[in-house]
Write a structure and sequence with these properties.
- About 5% of the residues lie in helices and about 40% in strands.
- It is mainly beta and about 350 residues long.
- It folds into two domains: about 1-100, no CATH class; about 100-340, TolB, C-terminal domain (Neuraminidase, 6 Propeller).
- The protein has a four-stranded antiparallel beta sheet with strand order 3-2-1-28, with no helix packed on it. Strands 4-5-6-7 form a four-stranded antiparallel beta sheet.
- A hairpin with a 5-residue loop joins strand 24 and strand 25 (about 300-305).
- About 45% of the residues are buried.
Length: about 350
């Protein structure tokens, strides 16, 4: 795979800025992106109590995602000419040259679909429209397989041996690393957003329920038990256009975002994997998006923007039962993509006295 800049130059140009040079991030921390006055998007971290907030990158970067162990962060970064996927040590060292590089056309594909395996050994992504899997040195494991550009979403099994994806037929499939694929559904109008449970026993996904796709079609949330293939509707036939599916770390609950019935906002819901205890966590007064669980499965962080667009999106935190909602940031800067560190000890936290300002 061709590298467009010398390794040393990339390391210097893309070195993260930390609160103290060489110091790791705090154990209990949330990564997010913020739109700066320069027009660039930088990665920040904030502690759930608001006591620490720092700009972690000083270069254009998007889509930060923790690796499964919480020791590294994968992100998209721009070196001045090309976008690339990087795997960065939280101490600010151990950078890898891009395994994937491209111009702005590439960015749309990488931003939506690239995902590292839990063991950080592989990257999967969709392009052209094919599902590709490469190892951490950029070597293709096998020829790509057909995948849908409409039904987005890729999800690795916890053991990094299989990958759930939406095929070009709109069904949910599982790809083994030996390049053999099996169908998990055969009767969906169009599947979307497959998400493997952390215990490896279930896959959640959304699917259209109408007889044909129209502008008013809505999706529901389903769970497949991989042991026997049983499929269960868990969103109670709400017809809410389900997106943003996230399993709790203990594999007992699923968080998701869904449009309000009027279509002029989104809410965040939590439901048990058997379909019981469906709870709306937010108040249908704006756009609540991008839920991410705390490691103890007790809280969620997400973005919130008022429905009247009177403020930019802010970070908000709420208990998984819907209590103790608080804003973590003040909406002074456009923030997005919150990701709670998956291994944070003592993850639950008290809210700050006032929402925190973010500037760059």
């Amino acid at each position: 795979m061709k590298h467009w800049l010398p390794i040393l130059l990339l390391i210097v140009a893309l070195a993260p800025h930390t609160s103290a040079q060489g110091d790791p991030l705090p154990a209990n921390v949330i990564l997010f992106t913020a739109l700066c006055e320069s027009g660039q998007t930088h990665v920040f971290f904030i502690t759930p109590d608001g006591q620490e907030v720092h700009e972690w990158t000083t270069y254009n970067a998007l889509s930060p995602r923790w690796t499964a162990g919480g020791e590294r962060v994968t992100l998209l970064a721009y070196d001045g000419s090309l976008w690339g996927v990087y795997n960065v040590d939280t101490s600010g060292s151990g950078y890898q040259v891009p395994m994937l590089e491209g111009d702005n056309y590439w960015l749309a594909d990488l931003y939506s679909d690239f995902v590292w395996s839990p063991d950080s050994a592989y990257i999967a992504y969709v392009r052209e429209p094919r599902l590709w899997v490469i190892d951490s040195s950029g070597v293709e494991l096998a020829p790509p397989v057909p995948a849908s550009r409409v039904g987005r979403g890729l999800s690795w099994s916890p053991d990094s041996r299989q990958l759930a994806f939406v095929g070009e037929d709109g069904q949910i499939h599982a790809l083994d690393l030996d390049n053999s694929a099996s169908s998990l559904t055969d009767d969906l109008l169009m599947g979307n957003n497959p998400a493997w449970s952390p215990d490896g026993r279930f896959i959640a996904f959304s699917a259209y329920t109408d007889g044909e796709l129209t502008e008013t079609s809505r999706t529901e949330l389903y769970v497949i038990a991989l042991e026997d293939g049983e499929r269960r509707l868990v969103s109670d036939d709400l017809r809410l256009a389900v997106e943003g599916i996230q399993w709790s770390p203990d594999s007992q609950q699923i968080a998701f975002e869904a449009y309000t019935p009027s279509g002029d906002g989104t809410d965040v819901y939590v439901v048990s994997r058997d379909g019981s205890d469906l709870t709306r966590l937010t108040d249908s007064d704006g756009y609540y998006r991008n839920p991410s669980w705390s490691p103890d499965s007790k809280q969620l962080v997400f973005t919130y923007q008022p429905g009247d667009n009177s403020a930019q999106p802010a970070l908000a935190v709420v208990n998984a039962n819907g209590t103790d909602f608080y804003r973590l940031t003040d909406g002074g800067a456009w923030v997005d993509e919150p990701q709670w560190r998956p291994t944070a000890a003592g993850a639950s936290a008290e809210p700050p006295a006032e929402p925190i300002s973010v500037h760059c």
